[in-house]
Amino acid sequence: MHENSNVEKRLRIPKILRTLYSPSKVFKELAENPSYRGVVLILILFIASNTFAVYALYTKRYIQKVKPNLFVGESDIWTENATLWNSTGSCTESNDSVYGEYSINCTVTNESELYMRVILPETINCSAHEFNKTSFSLKLLNSSDNPANMSLILFSENNGHFIRSLDKEIKEIEKWDNWNNITVPLGEKEDEWIRKGNASWHTISSVELLIKFSKKVNATLLLDALFFQGQYESQVEYFTYDVILYGMHYFILFIIFWVIFGGLLYVLTKYAGSNLTWKHTLMISSYSLTSLFVQGIFWATLFLFFLPQMNFQIDAPRGIYIPKEIPAAAELIFNLLSYSQFAFLAWGIIISTFAVRILSDLTIGKSVMISSASYLTAFFLAGVLSPFF
Questions:
Q1: pLDDT one-digit tens code per residue, 352-371
Q2: In terms of DSSP H, where are the helices of the chain?
Q3: 180-185 and 194-197 beta bridge pairing
């Protein structure tokens, strides 16, 4: 034991790390000289390790590129503003939507043809290796006739356009007064498109939907969730947008747990007859979180070295990402993470139990009961309350 102490002094192993394997010694030292410096260091390491675990997960998540870009808050901006659209009829925003707040509502009176056209704020590269699909949702109301045919037209600046019949797609629509999603492949390899003029797939600047009826009708067409879908890219490209959010999340999680756990320890140990001070219980609370700092490192290691690549594709009608396929190895890793959570929680409870036993002179039984009840309650409340801050 004396040799181990000398080794620790020579290597200057921090109290935080020694808490993991020798909590008794650490808390005897803290009883004599309690300090908040260790709390600050644990807070920094807790945030860093868990945020790094998220980064490691991002390196293995590949998401389908989408225009508008959902990761920078663009939502489905093209179908939120009716002033962007030209039409045979009049266009307004409608609260009847599948994604976002509005859809585009275009109404025609006594017409046999209805077109809707939006000029995009930027040209889109719709070649086979970039945004090679487009999707949108349609609903037709108050019409005495179903569409006879429908075409999708993509304009390439002022150089011409591409046109494709959607007759096959509209035959599959059973109820026009429900929302129906249509997905259309794009790019040079798609032979169903007809090129007019010098149109280029690399410079698509506007989108038009043309619907023809067999007779003149009064009708209202609603269009929503217009997206261009592309290839897959690592989600780590977007980590800079999320790093501050995750850092703040783990900061708030730590503070809530620290205060609640420390407060519960103070109340329960006082009730059990101990003279532990508020400062001592806060020391115990913070140092018991060392196990969750190690948990972050463990998770990051699993993600970086064992988790296979996972592709997430856009669920166009809802504008959310869903797994294209979850590899069996990934399921195994996530199950391991779930079970490991219990091990790290138990480790934290053991650390706090040693601390309460040493600093309060309570029996081991009381120390276990107080630590377990306080730790699990604080962990649960921190998880519930942190999203509200």
A1: 898 888 888 789 999 999 99
A2: 2-11, 15-21, 23-32, 37-58, 167-171, 239-271, 278-288, 290-306, 328-360, 364-385
A3: unpaired
pLDDT in tens, 286-337: 888 889 989 999 999 999 999 999 999 888 777 678 888 888 999 999 999 9
Whether pTM exceeds 0.90:
no
Length of the chain: 389
Q: Which residues pair with 62 in a beta bridge?
A: 234, 311
b/e burial code for range 260-294 (CB count within 10 A of at least 16 → b): bbbbbbbebbeebebebeeebbbbbbbbbbbbbbb
Say whether the peptide bond before residue 68 is cis (omega within 30 degrees of 0).
yes
DSSP state, residue 80: T
Distance CA 178, CA 144 (A): 15
Tokens encoding 79: 């179908």
Is 163:151 a contact under the CB 8 Å cutoff?
Answer: yes
Mode of pairing for the β-strands spanning 310-315 and 61-67: parallel
